[in-house]
Design a protein that fits this description.
The chain is of the alpha+beta class. It contains 13 helices and 15 strands. The longest helix is centred in the last third of the chain and has 47 residues. It is extended and about 135 Å long. The N terminus and C terminus are likely disordered.
Length: about 500
């Protein structure tokens, strides 16, 4: 056993003794003792009888009864809720709080920024709570800190990162609450970066799923959050060399399940077991949140919910199935022909929009509503889809750039036969082609006119010069035929008698 490892173990043993001493002296806030195994099992069994909200939707696939107080299964891309049980109840998140901590750190810092550990970061956490034994004054790059938080669930590392990002843990808590509000959380309030118990530190399964959606959109965080173990190597600013293992059994493979993308565990006496997990199969990426459960059932409840989701639901592309919002008149929602004959669709149904639907229903079973309340660039409207009031996804109506097809986003359209019978035949004339042809013909005519004018002018001038040359030649020959003024007319030969000189 090397010196640094011995030092870390010594620190932890000392922490335990101090905790016992302080606890016995009643100088530390006393938490409620955890329930016995029998009591915990009884409470979990009672929670199985709590109503499941998603089961109340007509013809919705029946979800499993689980021992968690609250749980949700949500599609990570669309936000569609497949399973819901007390999803808005305020509960303690414990260390699943650290998803938000790492999300803010990744958004506000670079991976190579050095995080220095202050006295407060190291010594303000509860004795005996999760840590990796970092000492005051030591430092690590942010990337290593993220591994410390997500793999080892180290509370002192979460504190140090919070101080680095916001200047203090209190200011960081304000940032956490602001980010939660931006993500749509309505039953969440954070007071710290690590999740240790505070009665004012709470969230709900639904809000925690929203935070997890943002977390799993970050590729780096997803990678780190899906790490079974991490080797922390000694450096000049952190002299210990050690390995930490993840406690998430679906990530380590202790409980096998296909397609796990990552997650975070959490536990306090008040919160009980909490768990956030992401898995991907069959074109769907699902997030499962389980709150207030007993170990190891949080893992098995998660497996039950994933199996329920991937078995009973599928992703359905909207543009491949939508018939109520289609185009029958090719001129509708097209730009007008300009002088050059350009005509393109200006609106199009987003080709990548898809829904999460129960496999037992068809696209025609859905209801839809158009909303024009959208602030996103190039989006004109959003078509929301429902099944008996349960939201199953949406499709956006976008400003087309190089869209292959246009859509008439009105209410239900007539059939092709009705349109053919009622609409007159339309002859489409390409104005650009016509104008181009007329212009070419005009240029040809102008060219011919100019060429003929040049030719005529050349012939006229040349002809005048030729005539004058001939006249000069005749004058030069004229003396042979002129009469002598003294002798009178003289004609050399009778052959010239016919000339009138």
């Amino acid at each position: 056993m090397n010196y640094h490892k011995s030092k870390r173990i010594g620190h932890r043993i000392l922490s335990v003794f101090l905790y016992i001493a302080l606890f016995s002296c009643m100088t530390l806030h006393v938490f409620a003792a955890p329930a016995s195994l029998e009591e915990a099992a009884q409470q979990a069994e009672e929670r199985k009888s709590l109503p499941i909200q998603s089961n109340q939707t007509e013809n919705w696939p029946a979800g499993p009864a689980i021992g968690a107080q609250s749980a949700i299964l949500m599609d990570a891309n669309t936000g569609v809720i497949l399973y819901a049980k007390n999803i808005d109840e305020k509960l303690y998140p414990a260390s699943t709080t650290k998803l938000m901590t790492c999300l803010l750190a990744a958004e506000n810092c670079k991976l190579d920024e050095m995080i220095k550990f202050s006295h407060n970061a190291v010594f303000s956490i509860e004795l005996g709570s999760s840590n990796i034994g970092i000492d005051e004054g030591q430092s690590m790059p942010l990337e290593e800190c993220l591994y410390g938080i997500l793999v080892a669930s180290a509370n002192e590392v979460a504190n140090a990162v919070a101080e680095h990002v916001a200047g203090s843990t209190d200011e960081f808590a304000l940032m956490m609450n602001q980010k939660a509000a931006e993500l749509g959380c309505e039953n969440t309030h954070f007071t710290n970066a690590h999740g240790l118990f505070d009665e004012n530190h709470y969230t709900s399964a639904y809000d925690l799923a929203l935070i997890a959606r943002a977390f799993f959109q970050n590729e780096l965080l997803t990678k780190i959050g899906n790490t079974p173990s991490h080797h922390f190597q000694a450096t000049a600013t952190q002299p210990d060399d050690f390995i930490e293992r993840n406690k998430h059994r679906l990530i380590t493979g202790e409980i096998a399940y296909e397609g796990i993308k990552g997650g975070k565990t959490g536990y306090t006496d008040e919160a009980r077991q909490t768990l956030v997990t992401c898995a991907e199969q069959n074109g769907m990426k699902l997030i499962c949140v389980v709150m207030k459960e007993e170990t190891p059932e949080q893992f098995y409840d998660t497996v039950k919910l994933f199996s329920y989701g991937f078995t009973n639901f599928s992703a359905v592309n909207v543009s491949e199935n939508e018939t109520d919002y289609s185009i029958q008149n090719s001129n509708f929602f097209n730009t007008s022909n300009d002088v050059f004959g350009n005509s393109k669709p200006i609106l199009t149904l987003n080709q990548s929009s898809y829904l999460i639907m129960p496999k037992t229903i068809t696209f025609e079973d859905l209801d839809s509503q158009i909303s024009y309340e959208t602030s996103k660039e190039n989006e004109v409207a959003v078509i929301n889809y429902y099944y008996h009031g349960a939201y199953v996804g949406n499709a956006t109506v976008d400003l087309a750039e190089d869209a292959p097809a246009a859509y008439n986003f009105t209410e239900k359209t007539k059939t092709d036969e009705q349109e053919t019978a009622q609409e007159p035949n339309v002859i489409v004339v390409n104005i650009k082609t016509v104008l181009t042809a007329v212009l070419i013909i005009a240029l040809i005519l102008i060219a011919i006119f100019v060429i003929r004018s040049i030719i005529n002018s050349y012939n006229f001038l040349d002809g005048g010069r030729t005539t004058r040359r001939r006249r000069r030649t005749r004058r030069q020959q004229m003396p042979r035929f002129k009469r002598n003024r003294k002798d009178g007319p003289h004609f050399p030969s009778s052959r010239f008698n016919d000339f009138d000189l």
